[in-house]
Amino acid sequence: MSDLTALSLAAARDGLRAKRFSALELNEASITAVAAAKPLNCFITETPDHARRAARVADERLGRGEARPLEGIPLGIKDLYCTLGVQTTAASRILQGFEPPYESTVSANLWRDGATMLGKLNLDEFAMGSSNETSFFGPVVSPWRRREGDELSEAAIVPGGSSGGSAAAVAARLCFGATATDTGGSIRQPAAFTGTVGIKPTYGRCSRWGIVAFASSLDQAGPIARDVRDCAILLRSMAGHDPKDTTSVDLPVPDYEAAVGASMKGRVIGIPSEYRMDGMSAEVEALWERGIAWMRDAGADIREISLPHTRYALAAYYIVAPAEASSNLARYDGVRYGLRVPARDVVDMYEETRAAGFGREVRRRIMVGTYVLSAGYYDAYYVRAQKIRTLIKRDFENAFAAGVDAILTPATPTAAFAAGEKGSGDPIEMYLNDVFTVTVNMAGLPGIAVPAGVSANGLPLGLQLIGRAFDEATLFTAAAAIEAAAPKVELPARWW
Ligand code: GLN
């Protein structure tokens, strides 16, 4: 039998239904691929027995012709999603050994639709980072390498972050799709760095219940997959109203797969002039120009637009996100979950547990967050950042009110960098990676990253499309048009 792991999710689904292979065979192929990919460090916990058990059930249902939408499809779950009785760490020492007594709504939705779980995927600690180098369980290595002949062709490349394990596992064909989360870019940036497709849905589209909170007003769940269709299939299963999350929205979930391949004729694509900024590499700028041409060739009307408050977005995000994080992370006190460092009294126990349990970047965010929320600084920083947030939101509303259907931008200012290359001296160097993605979270809008080309040194580059609230369908249509027009970004051959 040919290599089953090379199939797309849609092809695997169709192959299962046509009985060309069984769910157990498909899952065994993925389990073998996961076991052989230790050098990439994509998984914190592997759960092959879970996958086998679910695959047997899937084969029975397939045999009876009762296939559910994701029957027998092996997936990876970002280790920020609580999974019943399976260790969930948020890639932090403080949660090591924590086995949740419940399942997150989004992962439960996937199991309801027949998917199987290969394991829990590595990430930046508490989803804070852009390179997956802050995990307590070690960095994730991208399956991508620079082109042969490049002087750094052997260097480990980062997969992006925080959903680096999700993106790398999909790009390495270890799973057919993965869950991820996006607070400031953590789905779209790793997707762009690994030649995969990732969508951050509208805030409220997927339930946040049972997902470890980072910044609750920005966090959203979404999928990373090998192509636009696979991403659409996964989002349909993940999304939906959940009474357990009061910010989840009670709207019908469309058949996103039907939006893939629809016509772009007459749709208006906005190009924001403010995204032409310092730090963007020349090849990313050229890629953006090609993207505009592909949209025009597909029948879209191109319109220059202005999002004037873009330049303040990154600064405001790095106030709002740490503020919410400092509050959310107050619950890790050594009493209820994970690590406890015994000490003389309870205050010392809190301090020692938190000092030992949190890594550098998480401690930095807690300190920034508590500072901007403290008396005397609250108005100067936090309130101002919230005002900027409103202005950013209004910029987008104005563009959409003027008839724009989606906005096209680069996903990242550059291609992926090498491990250790950024942020070790100055954390702001790392934060600058998020310049094109954070605005979308601040406004609560949907955004998708789609592969569109390859850099001079052989690494993938992605474009981003931003849509109206709850109009993910248009993003799937536009991203599919780019996917069809762009030269195919072939996933890297196995070297690990
Ligand atoms: N890189 C951004 C940060 O570190 C975004 C992370 C995310 O979306 N979870 O905050």
Give a description of the structure.
- With 496 residues, the chain is α/β, with parallel strands linked by helices.
- Among the domains are: 4-260, Alpha-Beta Complex (Amidase signature (AS) enzymes), CATH 3.90.1300.10; 312-377, no CATH class.
- It has helices at 9-17, 23-35, 48-63, 105-112, 164-171, 188-194, 228-238, 282-297, 313-328, 346-357, 360-373, 378-401, 427-431, 438-443, 472-485, and strands at residues 43-46, 74-78, 116-121, 177-182, 197-200, 220-225, 268-272, 301-305, 406-410, 447-454, 460-467.
- The strands form two sheets. The chain has an eight-stranded mixed β-sheet, with helices on both faces.
- Strand 7 (268-272), helix 8 (282-297) and strand 8 form a beta-alpha-beta unit.
- Helix 2 (23-35) runs antiparallel to helix 3 (48-63), helix 5 packs parallel to helix 6 and helix 9 crosses helix 11 (360-373).
- The longest helix has 24 residues, at 378-401.
- The chain is globular.
- The protein binds glutamine (GLN).
- Glutamine (GLN) is lined by residues 127-130, 162, 182-186, 214, 321, 434.
- Glutamine (GLN) binds next to loops.
Strand content: 5-15%
> Which structural class should the secondary elements be placed in?
alpha/beta
Oligomer: single chain
Q: Approximately how much helix is present in the residues?
A: 25-40%
Count every beta strand, where a strand is a DSSP E run of 2 or more residues: 11
Strand order of the largest sheet: 4-6-5-10-11-9-7-8
Please tell me the overall pLDDT: 96
Tell me the name of the CATH homologous superfamily of the domain at 4-260. Amidase signature (AS) domain
Q: Give the termini distance in whole angstroms.
A: 22 Å
Q: Describe the global form.
A: globular
N-to-C series of helices and strands = HHEHEHEHEHEEHEHEHHHHEHHEEH
- Return Rg in Å: 21 Å
Please report the number of helical segments: 15
Q: What is the CATH topology of the domain at 4-260?
A: Amidase signature (AS) enzymes
